[in-house]
Amino acid sequence: MEKIIGNFDQRKEFGNFDSNIRFLNETALINKQIKILEIGSGTGSLLNYFHSRDYDIRGVEINKSRIEDSNDLHGKLPLDPVTSEVLPFPDNSFDVVISFDVFEHIPDSDQHLQEVKRVLKPGGFYLLQTPNKLTNVIFETIRWKSFTKWQADHCSLHSYWSILRRFRKNSFEEVTFYDIPVVTEFFKIKLKKYLGKMGLFLLKIINPDQLPLSLRTNFYITARNQTKIR
After folding, report:
1. Residues near 25 by Cβ (< 8 Å), separated by ≥ 6?
2. DSSP bridge pairs for 56
């Protein structure tokens, strides 16, 4: 597999690009012989990275303003607008589906996973990153200065154990959590933006990359579609 190298640019990146790229490298599931779908392409950084290197990839995005930003930043990409969890593709269309910072925003996690299964080929993989409920609740409460306001946005946060149950309920197997460091330049900038210097001070005391996987700030997961060929 071609090694993918991250390149941080705060003006363009919508998520933790370097950590996401490292995760995709470590799965060893991404190559130019497969069909890939990215759910929630945002401003198009990851989609553009792969598309510009001739990977067979498409993206979908629900936020029209982000699609406009993607067009401004990267030009026309294979990026389709969507209005719900329903994906505009036939059954068994993709070998791999990826999403970053998406799962926690979707009200009906079961419907989402069933749609992912539908468009995945039998034996295909879902690769995703999503915040840990145990740690994200604290961060979002401080960020929004409210115990409840953030819940409308992060409406589907999961713990380590609940996300395992969610995937198994929806007939995914080989659910694997990856040890991916998230303390990148992007992470530090975000922490300082919302928590100020106190956030950077706390980072020196508690490094989330050194916590057990079940307590990490973000989960990086692969799960295999166990649907059989009929």
Report:
1. 1, 3, 4
2. 35
